[in-house]
Structures
1.
Amino acid sequence: MKKTFLLILILINVLFSQDKNAQRIVENIKANFDLINDYIVEIKGKVDFPDAVIPELKAKIFFKKPDKFKVESDNFMIIPKQSIRFSPEILYEKDFSTLIIGEVDIDKVKHFIVKLISNNPEVEEVVTIWVNSKNYTIRKMNVIGSRVGKVEIDFYYKLIDEKYWLPEKMVAIFEASRIRFPRIRKIEKEQKDNSDLYGEGKITIEYFNYVVNKGIDDKIFEDKKKSVK
Amino acid sequence: MIFTLVSIELYKIFKKWRTYIGFLAFGIFIPILIYGVSVSGNHYQRILQRNIGDQFLIVGNLVNGWYVAFITIQAMIIHIPFFITLVGGDLFAGEGSAGTYRMLLTRPLKRELIVVSKFIAGFIYTFIFVLFFALISTLPSIYFLGVGDLIVPLEKIVVIPSKEILTRFLLAYFSSFISMCVVLSLAGLFSSLVNNAIGPIVGTMAVIVIFLIIGELPFEFFERIAPFLFTKYMTVWLDAFDYPIDWTKIFNSLLILLGHIVLFFAITIFYFRKKDILT
């Protein structure tokens, strides 16, 4: 009886400590991004999508705390939402649970694998992040949900102004069948069967010329032309 | 001589009110379309947003003037040919129903010259109509809805950068002009066979509709026939919106269409030289 009680106590302690560790990791990720009050960056992107030809995209992203952003572009573009705050949306919600599910070495650096699950029963997406143990940046992200299917995002960072870890490249891979472009003509059955429509889509974004914490006028975010906010 | 004959034929064409039906129809329809699109807002972008908005941001003005112009150019498949046949079907038959054949052919002119002048006048009308259509579908829509990249949502989704769009549309309108010349030539040929314009108009449209249906039927028998139907190449203007442009395909399609124009013209001359005028 005593042994069983002790075992349960140890188990609860392990689970709680793991939960605390996972929360600490999340806090560190947020703290990393908290250093950034605003930034402006130029991006160049490429969308590889089966059955679609989308030219190379160029844009400028403006971001200001807490959640103001603007993507300025003359061209049509599709970019993952995570390309603005470099982290999953759930991280900025209050009610979610975290769980460390393992550790793995990526580029010879230890990474924590953390699962983020919303406590809101209506949110069914499960997010897994791979967090660099040295600088607490999100190296990899995996989002799974019935609407979005599976989205995998890889981030590659560089140190800006010798103090801010910000991505220089982002690669998102997603299930092409989940992205439905409305069409004028129906796809012929045979073509649909033979096509790669059910393959993978890929969006690659490269970031250039970061301007961090130099202040951005709020008026920038009011101009709706050529932008998405 | 030929200049005078063409001028007379043009006068005959533009003297008839039916010539202006197409101009009137599109002159009324396209402003309504632009108004509808501007009132409905960015419908395409909303659908896209609903489909992928959970994970992706969509940037750029997709439903712009170019998009409206692209929607309207779809009318080249069936609607514009109808307005072309209204004139083409009347080229020769109009003389028959008006009873002017004898007067025309008793003049010291070669019959071949009459056929040439009627075809040239028909091509000029076709050019003016396509030009009018191009201007009315692009200029007002660009003025009211602005510009941006063009999304071509056909079997393959193609996004054409704004700097390339004008060239694509010029190519598309030129190709559709050649396509419409085929329609006019066929209507002209049918017109030379009879003395009433209704037959050639209905006949030409029937040929186009039947050929289009055959071309779309997913059966092996019809799939073998489809490459021999000129309607398969009439949609060559769609290839102007492919990425990258398949120049060989466009060139071949245009050559086949030009071949049909020559063929219909030659048959008309062959028949008209020996045509017995009884009216």
Note: Chain A touches chain B at residues 49, 51-55, 59, 71, 73-81, 83-84, 143, 145, 147-148, 151, 174, 178-185, 187-191, 226-228 (CB under 8 Å).
2.
Amino acid sequence: MQTERGRNVSGIDECLLEALRLPGARGAAVVDWVSGLALGTAGDAPGGDHEAAACETAELARMVAEYRSFSPLHAAGTPSAVTVPAEQHAGQTPAVEDIIATNSDSYHVLRFVTGALDGTLFLHVWLDRDEGNLALARIRLAEIAGRLVL
Amino acid sequence: MLHRLAAERATGAFTRAGGTLFLVDGQIVHAESPAATGLEVLLTRGSVLSQARWDAALSRWGREGSVAHNLVARGHVPLGLLELCQRTALYDAAFFVLAPSGRLGRFRREVRDWLGAGVGVAPAAVESETARRLALLDRIWPDARIDVLPPASAVGAGRPPTVTDRQLRILQLADGTRTATDIARELGRPAFHTLVELRRLAAGGLVVPAGSGRMEEHVAEAVREGEQSAAVPPADGFAKPDVALLRRLMDALEAL
């Protein structure tokens, strides 16, 4: 879709289809981890049910987003010698960029989306392990997440 | 009634005590509720879109129902962001419209929404999502009074160790006067998300519904009086918000 100014704009569907173009991609979704609702889905879902998968991935995303163990030690831009207490991360959501889960035949990458809805959204891509390239997926998903809200 | 409207592929506005669902060809394209945060707040509070731009878009394109298209086409809001906020706001409002309240809905044919967001959702999908959300809230903490009565912080000085940053912001606003909807709007967050966090805080004993106790008898009486005076619906089809709120409180008390 093009705007009057001639820029390409990416909606939810376009972004999910782009995620499906990753080598080995089986399925993709954008999920709200507070409610567990998939706001958009594409391709196949683990277990065959996008809604059930969204509820489960949302639980994982919520825990990682909220537990202090996963917060960075230093706020971005501060000298590494200075440790910032977790309280000061309020407003700089989310602290975690992505989560990866690996099993014998798949990779799952969950990429948090910043700049929308207070950091409560993430992109989930499910990749075949043999065909999938994890480094590429992380980089591409970061780009897609950025394009979704900019 | 909603199932019949979906099967008939009806177009119009379906109104219950909790708000209104806008249908086009039997699909829900937009939803509004006095208890929900609203798309306007989600877009403007996230500092993507200024309030002035929103107001201008609404006044210029609201009547022809093309606000969404024009905001995106003119580059004021990224398409993805609009879609994400629009879908979030739709489910947020639909939750309050479809939550059980014992009252029937009214349908006004051919009434259109001002947003013009386009893609709709099947009523059955929104109903099952609403049921899932109700079960989710109940699992966290079964007392629904916190949805309706203003929450009051039950925490002493200093920060409790198990609270997230998001919950802390809610606790700071829980003064026994603001309702969950007030808090959600002030934070620019969907109402349902705030309900989830309040149930979690209540489960941890960190908030309590303000004024509970003698409130139950007064509420039951107020609902009866409110229903009598609301027996003739106002001309615009919207139920009075205070009666709706009291109705939800009654249901919450009965469910306890």
Note: Residues 133 and 149 of chain A are 25 Å apart (CA to CA).
3.
Amino acid sequence: MAFKIASSPHVTRNLHTSTVMQRVILCLLPGLVVQCAFFGWGTLVQVLLAILVALSCEAAVMKLRNRDIKTSLSDNSAMLTAILIGVAIPPLAPWWMIVMGTAFAIVIVKHLYGGLGHNLFNPAMAAYVLLLVSFPVQMTTWIAPSTVALHSPSLVESLQLIFNVGAHVNMEQFRLGIDGMTMATPLDTLKTDLSMGLTTTESLTKAIFDGSTGVGWFWVNLAYLAGGLVLLKLKAIRWHISTGVLLGLFVASSIGFLLSPDNQASPLLHLFSGATMLAAFFIATDPVTAATSPRGRIIFGALIGVLVYIIRTKGGYPDAFAFAVLLANLCAPFIDYYVRPRTYGHSTN
Amino acid sequence: MLTLLDQLDKGTLWRSPGGIHPPEVKFLSNATPIGQLPLASTYLVPVPQVGENCTLAVKVGDKVLKGTPLTQGTSIWHLPVHAPTSGTVVAIEPRASNHASALPVNTCVIAADGKDTWCELVPNQLDDLSHQQIVDKIRSAGIAGMGGAAFPTHIKLNPVSEIDLVIINGVECEPYISADDRLMREYSQDILAGIGIIHRLLAPKRIVIAIEDNKPEAAKAMQAAVNQCGLPAGSIRVTVIPTKYPSGGEKQLIQIITGREVPSGSIPAKLGIVVHNVGTAFAIHQAVTQGKPLVERVVTVTGKNVSKPGNYWLPIGTPVDHVLTATEFTPEAEQKVIIGGPMMGHALANIQVPILKGTNCILVPSSQEIGSAPEEKACIRCGECATACPALLLPQQLFWHAKAEEYDKAASYNLKDCIECGCCSYVCPSDIPLVEYYRIAKSALKQAADEKQQAERAKQRFDARLARLEEEKLAREAKAKEAAERRQATMTGTDKNAVAEAMARIAAKKAAAAQAATGGATIEQPATAELNATATDTTAAPKGKAAVAAAIARAKAKKAAQANTESTKTHSVETDSAQIDSSANVDETESATDVIAQEAPLSQKDKVAAAIARAKAKKAAQQTDTAPLEPTETADSTSELNAADDKKAKVAAAVARAKAKKAAQQAETNAENGLNQTATPAVDSKANVQADVNDDTEAAATDINDAEAIKKAKVAAAVARAKAKKIAAASAESKTDAEIESVDVIRAEANVASPSIAATLDTATTEADAVLPSQGSAAEPIETAQLSSEELKKARIAATIAKAKAKKAALAQEANASSDSSVTND
């Protein structure tokens, strides 16, 4: 009888792309839960909406490309992109924004560049930037964290706001803090205060801050950090990029803070505000758009960290991860070209 | 090295990058002692198995005993193969090989007689043997590396550089395989004896026996054996290393034990390190102390689809299907039969293939153990492969370029340093068969390199040929020059006579030429007849005769060529005869040309040629007429006449050349039409040239400048020869033997032609030299007897000028050579 022939190796680890993506999604859940706890049902609605749009777009594109729809949907990559967009945008942003952003991410950023594995830019961040530059007002309108808010939106109110039905619900009422002031994100607040001549210490006394970090945001970041550590443990991601990002941000912000503590945010505030932990473990670690060699990935991560610090401090936008990630994406091929590991048996030069 | 030795003694281990931890599954086979299987009915022994050059030592029908060498050879790379059992050689023929390709290899098929009788074995006392004797015994025992690569062991035991460290590889990192494990457990003493022999041969500072920590029993047994062996204390140790695939790879093991890397493209001996497998050490012991050649080895037979997994002593050459039958193999649909381990082994399509010296495992897994490969998905650049790569490559970049068939870029990412261990494919979440891509890329690169090398060689051959041709040309010229000088040196005073004779001849010629000119200006045929008459009657007019003869020869050649181009096969017989004719012409000399002159039919061409000759004669006559008749001035006219003659000769030669060229071209263009057809014109043109040369030889007796013509004729002949050669080369590619024979005929003729031309040239030169001083003597007839060297020199200069002029004229002539009428109008 004829026997089956195949090229070696004949065994594989059986850790497939879909499994890796699945693990990443699962590790996002703690952060998502905490985010919902502080900012209401809106985030969950956005995530579900994004997933729906992402899967539809993925299926439609696969159909157009004459590829197998099931294989593509089952790799979970579209779903991961959708969840990342969902958690990144303001919880009560109107529905058409997330639809537009997600469709842009899947159709244009991912598939027009060749699909999974071929896209140059991180789809979630590209979508975020598109929305941010197109609709800056909506994209920077965060509601007050539930612990310091006058009113927190219920599920129905969230849905009404997102889908723009029911005239009596007003976005502004959920932005009022217990002090009766409209609340922005901690980073935004600090940035505005510093530009108005206040010192960091003065700004930190505001209700949005909890001594040294932003109310709610600290816990959200902590939850993403925990999820990220589990990811590391599961070896779904490697430590290089995350460490690079956190170290880069920490070192840059420490230097800045030591030089002028009065008009700079502390490293702690940088590390536990905004999207820091989410980006460090779930966004920057997207392998497709990152550098490939271990050393290259550390450099890639550190670049993001430093860029985030610069944009947060000097840029016009309060948070900077989307821009920093996209800029680092641009640099990834360059990093790959120049940072190659020394092959066994080759001299160092 | 001292610090390294210290660290070796401390058992320091270094980290090898990358690597994976696949399921080991060694428990299937490592629990039972090494067993025996019943003898197979036939054994398949590939010859040669290792190394290239060998001659068979047996023939079909020979009776062989177990251990009888089947091959012999003298090359250092030759490694004999031995009969694995006693029996009869029933066939020596290509059979499927134990290789992924299953390409047939020459195989000695031995029908076992079932007795398994050993040939005579000569045990040795180790102390009685010299180093060389030991190495010879290892070689004649046919020992190759037993770890899988099957590199001839005697070469590794005879290194050029000093060896500081010998690593005995008992790592066996591939999953499933336990052959070395069992061997170490059961034959540790024998392995140590083998290590002792290696120690004696290489005298290393340290020997390290490396064993993975998943084989504690083996490590214990080896440690016990080390404690008992007689090797110097401290020079040998057992080092247990952490289990990780591929720690057993030579380069990785060296890195783990010493922290050093084998430079890319180099061998461990460069670092003073040699790695031997434990199985090899065992075989060395068997070969040297017991005289047993390598005819059997331990093979792990494992996988869920054999009922009796375990390790077995299998004669080399045992068919795999026999082994599987004996171990109760139950195949399933899409069964894989893997030779080697699951990481690097190759799957067999056909199991009628033999166990080889490097075969350490037969793995027949169930589909639950090792399923079929899942479909390849898109690379997400996760970098897991780069993390797993023990060679620190960037597998995803290699894949990227290999898939795009940008092999040069893949090479720039050090593709050649890939050891094909399979770690990258193992960890790939997208199920990409990375190693397969690398293999394809590697073979493509190898093929490209081979092609480049071939092209390089072809270019070298071409250059060498050009150089050779140039050299031959120079040699011919040098020879001619030398001959000329020799003759000049031996010249005597009797030259006076030669001068007188020459003058007489010139006078006669003048007369003849005048006659020809007046006789045949309008009516061509009679004129030719007249010419013929002059040729036969007047010995003093060889030039005209020669011209006619040459013209006729040319005409004939052309005719033959034309005939040939149009000829069918029946015509080719005729042309053959023409060929013979021209060959005859080559063989004969003066008389032959005369015969041609008289016998050749007077065609249009002949007439034209004759007309040319006439025109030339006329010109010469005119010149003579204008010259004053005073005897003192005869010399001038002579030289003038000579110049004219020279021109004429040159014209003739040029025409001949043109003809030859044309004929040759025709021959070339007709090369497809058949050899006889094409070859004949070439031969004819050669004959033509020959005729010219012969004519000119005659003429040279009267004319100094004919030497020039001869030279040219020689060149023409050389061209013709070259053409003939070319045609011969072209025809060498044609199919029928008959054609090839005719090529040989032509070659032979070419050979005949060349010496005769050389001879002709010699004579011509002699005569030319003889005539040379005559110019001087003609200028001062009274003092001809006392030829000063200065005068000679002058004469020579004059001759050179004349030659140059002639050459110039010849060039001009060549330009006009296409139309004969233009020559006539001159």
Note: The first helix of chain A runs from residue 17 to 39.
4.
Amino acid sequence: MPFVTAKSQKHDYDVIVVGSGAAGGQCAYALCMDGAKVLMLEAGRRYNPATETPMFQTPDQAPLAGVGTPQKPFGFYDATVDGGWEVPGEPYVRTSDEPAGRFDWWRARMLGGRTNHWGRISLRNGPYDFKPCSRDGLGFDWPIAYEDVAPYYDRVELLIGVYGSNEGLENTPDSPPGCLLPPPRPLVSDLLMAQRAKRLGIAAIPGHKAVLTRPLDFRSSPARLHPGNVTAQRILAEDMRARAVCLWATPCGRGCSIRANYQSTTVHLPPALASGNLDITTDAMAYEVTLGRDGRANGVSFIDRTTGKPQHASARVVILSASACESVRILLNSKSAQFPNGLANSSGRVGRYLMDTVGSSASGQIPLLESLPPLNEDAADGDQLYVPWWLYRDQHAGKLPFARGYHIEFGGGKRMPGYGTGAAMEWLTSGSYGVKFKQDVRRYFGSFVHFDGRGEMIPNEHSYCEIDPSLKDKWGIPVLRFHWQWSEHELRQAAHMQRTFAEIVDSMGGRTRGPVQSDGAKAIAPGGSIIHEVGGAIMGSDPKTSVTNRWCQTWDVPNLFVTDGAVFASNADKNPTLTIMALAWRAADHILERMRRREL
Amino acid sequence: MDRRTSIKWVLAASAAWPLSGKHAARADPAPTGRGYGTDPNLLAVYHPGELWPLTFTAPQRRLAGILADIIIPADEHSPSASSVGVVEFIDEWVSAPYPASQRDRPIVLGGFTWLNEEAARRCGKGFSDLAATEQNGICDDICEESRSRWRDAARFFALYRDLTAGGFYSSPVGRKDLGYMGNVPLASFDGPPPELLKKLNLP
């Protein structure tokens, strides 16, 4: 029985995985397919995308036309269950409410975590991204290089299905043949943006997104991913055949009932469950990793949310994949005589060096895109094209006032009308109403374009979290307190984004909506709002200055691993999820190898 | 447009603005209630009034419909706003227990009061009882925020136009009016037609 309660859990698990998202799902998949017995603890409820996803529901069927509210921040139909920047009964503390000094913590309490709703953008870190300090003297190098992770990027792409192209660009890695699925056709707005940006020396290329544009290669990929393991190959081949190709409609953020995009619940967990080696306990809110007298982790304590009572599960190995800040919280709350400041925290670095992505946005209106004939532009729900960072040389030569790069996510097209269609158009319409207003909305529908800059934040001493000395959540678990500060690098980068967006809009013959923000502190999105928070248990080569080694294994406790974004030693502009999965798979392989050698 | 963008659109469309004391909704306490929660059934079809009680009185409903239809009247392409449930949508909006709604509620209710007071001042009647030309006369004076001398009323009108459009274009009729062709499963996505790209001089 794969879904077990606290009572029906077994007592001889090889590994406990805390969390069921990108990291937990990937770890459980890799471990179970190779025969390890795994117990997964998920704080949220069980969730079934096949039966719960509102695929074709329209805004008129939702309350408030489906707009976001604090209870459903990304809209009524967003897949997130019991999640958001505020989770009832699960508070946290901010030391600042100022836009440039605050950190907001996103959580999702559901099986599969935030992979159910994420943007599916799947970019590889490049060689520079693992050795940033060596290039410019800032932040930290990782104890691993691109070459160490590349084979796992290949494997994750083959397993989950990622579309994209190989362009041979600097620090924007190509994938080996057969790894990527073909990218979708660009929209009119994509092609116009690419044509005009090119004149500015800015290259737009196909995005990389975990969406199936054609069936996965169920004939050869299983053998490539699980050489010599016939059972795993059979399970995976069957599962790959059961995933449908994108039907070119419905927003990915709602989840996908036909399994055409990646979410842990549709890609990682089904084959892991089919292996018979995975037990999952949902509504299990982990709060402590318990330590044996031998100094090794011997299990995890959790609150059974269905009863409110504390429970304990035991295993030979514990993996924290609870998301960066939640894993940090569990470590800091796991206090013992040996680790009075939190487990695996002899370095004092647990909670340190939190990073998010630098975010800044702009939109514009493009006359050339007005009054186009009706077109179906749902496509792959955006991200047909994106702009990778293009100023590596200028930056390395010291010609830019900030140290790290950003990429641009671009959107346009005749997307499904809803709340916001026809809104705030006075700057274009002189305040029309009546029949003229209806004509104006038709004219401008599909003529708006949007730019999101996503940039690298350098870790700093002022952005961290710790346990609040007094506040507890509704389960009685001490909560996190966040400190946040950007450096000039991030603020100047955000201002540069704004200028670039304005130049591209201008080159497209359009106008930007609202002012172009030259003050970085006003241009930058608050910490945590891009939901790329990483760091807090960074990997390194020195136990004195890092929490884990190159295998995501904590320096202090040999059978305790952290495989989520907490181990990131830097946060490249590339969206972190693909790297989280690659590192998690790499750690799982390492654990399997050590278990075979009876070292774990 | 990604998910964060749609949030921003909503925030931009319903940006907070202080209403002068006179026209604030004095007797209307902010709605309280739990909303639909953090784990609502996403497959059900919802109607205004099911999740939280509505606000509008009968005269307010009448005025709401008249104003919505001034903003989006019937034309040769599609029917008017009120005929596709926009009044009920706006009533649901101003009655919801969420911050954006609670911000907009006094603006809308205060705006209704202003319209009636202005109509009485100009013509000695309530706004709903004015002739169409008289109603348009008032609307012409507040439809463009940057030029209106009635700043609060102009902000109300801008919000009300956004709400009307939001309700109208969320509906099947609104989608059809704009020629929206998506939200249907396709066997393949072929991109824009070549003749259109040629016309736009795109590769």
Note: The first strand of chain A starts at residue 13 and ends at 18.
